[in-house]
């Protein structure tokens, strides 16, 4: 019997072993599971008349996507039957584990020779924020990340970002270079004129203190634009 042929009201523990989400993950890896199957592992149990997977499918359908579900406020997520504050906490803990895993992956290597890891980390940090946020990665002389921090939030442009504070933070962490990023809540990763000006101002100010600005990423929804790749920075 295939997974599609299994009666959905049948408890998962009565499914063929290789169709159960946990066993499937153990044998084939997490990537082999669909969104509903992964969500069902967190839900653990269904509700009366519905298996955990059937319940997960309904929640995902109502939320619109897994990403939208996991970015919901606690009060909104807990409106779904079978999801309470304990489940919300588990989801947020899982997301934070993902962020910390990406940071460790990024911090242990060369941020320049492994640029995709830096992009993934910054995208994970910024893409779902409903406000503009300015984030910085502080690197040592071997391009290893020594510190990561959201420095500012609000309108991010040449007039509102206190460049002196960015330089001050770089010196405080004894950084040899920086990678900075900010998000566009609109989801469009196209740099604005203000983004170009801010990048040039930051580059000049940091350069005067012997700190190299390696890149400025603009994070959109599903896309990250590198101003270094656009030729704005002469690194």
TL;DR of this structure?
The chain is of the alpha+beta class.
Present the secondary structure layout.
Elements: H1 21-28, H2 35-43, H3 52-63, H4 66-70, H5 74-77, H6 85-107, H7 115-126, E1 133-139, E2 145-153, H8 163-172, E3 177-183, H9 193-208, E4 212-219, E5 224-226
Parallel strand pairs: 3-4
Antiparallel strand pairs: 1-2, 1-3, 4-5
Written account of the structure:
By secondary structure, this protein is α+β, with helices and mostly antiparallel strands. The protein contains 9 helices and 5 strands; from the N terminus they run H-H-H-H-H-H-H-E-E-H-E-H-E-E. The chain has helices at residues 21-28, 35-43, 52-63, 66-70, 74-77, 85-107, 115-126, 163-172, 193-208; strands spanning 133-139, 145-153, 177-183, 212-219, 224-226. The chain has a 5-stranded mixed beta sheet with strand order 2-1-3-4-5, with helices on both faces. Helix 2 crosses helix 3 (52-63). The longest helix has 23 residues, at 85-107. The model is unreliable at 1-7 (pLDDT under 50).
């Amino acid at each position: 019997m295939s997974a599609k042929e299994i009666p959905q009201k049948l408890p998962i523990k009565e499914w063929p072993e290789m169709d159960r989400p946990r066993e499937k993950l153990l044998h084939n890896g997490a990537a082999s599971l669909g969104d509903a199957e992964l969500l069902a592992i967190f839900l653990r149990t269904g509700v009366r008349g519905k298996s955990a997977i059937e319940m997960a499918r309904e929640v995902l359908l109502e939320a619109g996507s897994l990403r939208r579900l996991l970015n919901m406020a606690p009060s909104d997520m807990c409106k779904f039957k079978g999801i309470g504050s304990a489940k919300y906490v588990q989801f947020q803990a899982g997301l934070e584990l993902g962020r910390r895993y990406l940071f460790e992956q990024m911090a242990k290597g060369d941020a320049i020779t492994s640029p995709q890891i830096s992009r993934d980390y910054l995208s994970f940090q910024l893409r779902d924020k409903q406000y503009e946020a300015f984030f910085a990665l502080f690197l040592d002389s071997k391009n290893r990340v020594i510190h990561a921090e959201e420095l500012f939030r609000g309108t991010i442009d040449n007039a509102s970002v206190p460049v002196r504070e960015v330089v001050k933070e770089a010196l405080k962490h004894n950084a040899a270079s920086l990678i900075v990023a900010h998000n566009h809540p609109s989801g469009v990763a196209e740099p604005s004129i203000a983004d170009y000006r801010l990048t040039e101002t930051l580059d000049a100010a940091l350069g005067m203190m012997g700190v190299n600005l390696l890149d400025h990423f603009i994070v959109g929804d599903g896309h990250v634009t590198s101003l270094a790749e656009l030729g704005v920075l002469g690194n």
